[in-house]
């Protein structure tokens, strides 16, 4: 699903945010990407959806080398990827349902189809009665669920979440983790970056650790939750 070969990322003038990263992630894995603040987690995720390009090395996502993509290819790549951020990034002047539906509309779906998909997703995520609210009227946990609905509306094969629980209290963070586990059960690959080791729990299948831009550890574990390596 994802392959990185000798991937480096240097920010000007000469800061090495990622150093010679080599790894593969299989379809259907739920990967925690951990490391202290500044370790390179967000950079890693940004490379995967081509928000940035590596300074050296090759990245493949879903069989495609990202270096070769033209702008249409980048758009197609991003349609396959759902993004979730710490700060939700919802549009404050749109209703909840419009925030979610818009993500389908921008890929060419009709307004009617987008809305009906959004309504179904919001129902699945337990936000049935909040369709017409504005995001800022919701709790943090509800806002993150809206953001997750938006990330899922185009049926992504890959979900990238960057500190998705950073603004949530522990209980809501755990609920959010369960939600990611459910999304994975429906077939998506999940990569969830967090600096909070307390979040790394039984839902994941693998923990990749970055330390100052280097791959420091890579531990897979069985579905039973026991350590496999
Ligand atoms: N656009 C940028 N320009 C320069 N340096 C950057 C940029 N983005 C990130 N960095 C630096 O790269 C390092 C890794 O950042 P980041 O990937 O955001 O780490 P993390 O998400 O693990 O906290 C940090 O030292 C950060 O300051
Ligand atoms: Mg980060």
Order of helices and strands: EEEHEEHEHHHEHEEE
CATH homologous superfamily classification of the largest domain: P-loop containing nucleotide triphosphate hydrolases
Count, helices: 6
* CATH architecture assignment name of the largest domain: 3-Layer(aba) Sandwich
Q: Largest sheet at a glance?
A: 6 strands, mixed
Q: What is the distance, rounded to the nearest whole angstrom, between the alpha carbons of the first and last residues?
A: 21 Å
Classify the fold: give the CATH topology of the largest domain. Answer: Rossmann fold
Bound molecules: adenosine-5'-diphosphate, magnesium ion
Structural class: alpha/beta
Low-confidence stretches at least 5 residues in length (pLDDT < 50)? 224-229
Q: How many E strands?
A: 10
**Could you tell me the mean pLDDT?**
92
Q: What gyration radius follows from the Cα positions, in whole Å?
A: 17 Å
The CATH class of the largest domain turns out to be: Alpha Beta
Tally of separate domains: 2
Strand content: 25-35%
Core attributes:
six-stranded mixed sheet; binds adenosine-5'-diphosphate; 229 residues; disordered C terminus; binds magnesium ion; alpha/beta; four-stranded antiparallel sheet; Rossmann fold
Structure notes:
This protein has 2 domains: 1-80 and 156-229, P-loop containing nucleotide triphosphate hydrolases (Rossmann fold), CATH 3.40.50; 91-154, no CATH class. It has a 6-stranded mixed beta sheet, with helices on both faces. Strands 2-1-4-5 form a 4-stranded antiparallel beta sheet, with helices on one face. Helix content is 31%, strand content 28%. Mean pLDDT is 92; it is low at 224-229. Strand 7, helix 6 (170-185) and strand 8 (189-194) form a beta-alpha-beta unit. By secondary structure, it is an alpha/beta fold. Magnesium ion (MG) is lined by residues 41-42, 162.
């Amino acid at each position: 699903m994802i392959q990185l070969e000798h991937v480096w990322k240097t920010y000007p003038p000469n800061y090495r945010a990622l150093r010679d990263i080599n790894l593969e992630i299989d379809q259907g894995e739920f990967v925690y990407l951990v490391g202290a603040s500044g370790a390179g987690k967000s950079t890693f995720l940004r490379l995967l959806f081509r928000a940035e390009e590596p300074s050296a090395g090759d990245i493949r996502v879903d069989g495609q080398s990202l270096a070769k993509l033209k702008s249409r290819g980048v758009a197609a790549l991003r349609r396959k990827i759902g993004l979730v951020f710490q700060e939700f990034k919802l549009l404050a002047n749109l209703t909840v349902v419009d925030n979610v539906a818009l993500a389908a509309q921008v890929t060419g779906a009709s307004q009617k189809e987008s809305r009906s998909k959004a309504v179904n997703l919001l129902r699945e995520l337990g936000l049935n009665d909040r369709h017409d609210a504005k995001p800022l009227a919701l709790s943090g946990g509800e806002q993150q669920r809206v953001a997750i609905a938006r990330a899922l509306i185009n049926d992504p094969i890959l979900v990238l979440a960057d500190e998705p629980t950073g603004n949530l209290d522990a209980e809501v963070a755990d609920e959010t983790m369960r939600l990611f586990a459910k999304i994975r059960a429906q077939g998506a690959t999940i990569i969830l970056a967090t600096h909070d080791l307390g979040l790394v729990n039984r839902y994941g299948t693998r923990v990749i650790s970055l330390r100052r831009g280097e791959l420091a550890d890579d531990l897979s574990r069985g579905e039973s939750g026991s350590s496999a390596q």
